[in-house]
Amino acid sequence: MTIIDGKQLSETIKLEIAQEVAAIKAAGGKIPHLAAVLVGENPASQAYVGSKVRSCEQVGFQSTLVKRDASISEQELLSIVDELNQDPSVDGFIVQLPLPGHIDENKVILAIDPRKDVDGFHPVNFGRMAQGMPSFVSATPYGILQMLERYNIPTDGKHCVVVGRSNIVGTPISILLSRKAKVGNCTVTLTHSRTKDLPAETRRADILIAAIGIPEFVKGDWVKEGVVVIDVGINRIEDPASKKGYRLVGDVDFEQVAPKSSYITPVPGGVGLMTVTSLLMNTLKAAKKEIYP
Ligand code: NDP
Q1: Handedness of CA 114, 290, 162, 49 (dihedral sign)
Q2: pLDDT digits (tens, 9 = 90+) for 219-231
Q3: Whole-number Å distance between alpha carbons of 291 and 270
Q4: Ligand 1 in contact with 223 (CB < 6 A)?
């Protein structure tokens, strides 16, 4: 059994990006610039944005944090999006979700210029991705592709079972892995809460991707020997033994599933770290105008 080390892999990729940024700088080029919009005081959102900004600094990007109170109106937020769309110094930007209830998230996503949509949430990028055209692939699915590619895990002809059909993880990764592509050519089954006999489906998986949001949901007898497991879940469970009073676990029962796996991602230290790194990869692509020349 091999642990897919998201920490090590993301450090490797960040080093590659830093080298490219240094070369751009040495040649007198423009340093990639990522902006992040954070609305309100949600602690998880603050932590995610903080880690994105720190990662930018680590690789030598320019970063801008636009922070606004939760009381901001939808119109004011749309104006900020418009300013970032127009600002030639900004290569890409994200609006951290979730947004306060009085703001229509879809409206905000639709307002982002697809050429700067490094989160890959705009339907133009999603559609281009689905049709195999150059696109910004959203960060978590992009991170999963990187893990499979860089660990040389064969996907061609494999049966991949995805549990969870969200717009940001389950649905895009199921499309990506079924595409005719280097990391792709899987036969994909996309499952969700209405799936009948889920364990029977997951037992057929050569590659299992769990993006559900229920702690340690996938059990040892739900998988076959040799399965490749990508655990996207990040869940807090109470742990009086820990200083914080909680610890993070995935959607997969690691103790039970790891011994049967050929490869498995840990939580923490797996997909989560790759998500931030993928955002940096997208920002570099935006700065180099690779997707939209
Ligand atoms: P969503 O809540 O948007 O989607 C969850 C999906 O799981 C839904 O499709 C839902 O089905 C399905 N589901 C729920 N219960 C069951 C069940 N009993 N059986 C089968 N399917 C079920 O979640 P996300 O995709 O946003 O996130 C999933 C997990 O991944 C979370 O733990 C989240 O924190 C984590 N995450 C981690 C990231 C990372 O960087 N590592 C990034 C994004 C998310 P239905 O559609 O029928 O309701």
Answers
A1: negative
A2: 999 999 999 999 9
A3: 27
A4: no
